[in-house]
Amino acid sequence: MPEETKKITLHGVHCALGAKMVPFAGFDMPVRYTSDIEEHKMVREKVGVFDVSHMGEFLVTGPQALALIQLVTSNDAATLRIGQAQYSCFPNETGGIVDDLLVYKMDEEAYMLVVNASNIEKDWAWINQHNSMGAELENISDQISLFAVQGPLAKEVLQPLTDVDLNAIPFYHFAVGTLAGKNDVIISATGYTGAGGFELYVKNQDALDVWNAVFAAGEGVGIKPIGLGARDTLRLEMGYCLYGNDITDETSPIEAGLGWITKFTKDFINAEQLKKQKESGVSRKLVGFKLGEKGIPRSHYPILNAEGGVIGEVTSGTQSPSMGIGIGLGYVETSYAKPGTQVAIGIRNKTIQATIQKLPLLAQ
Question: pTM (2 decimals)?
Answer without folding.
Answer: 0.97
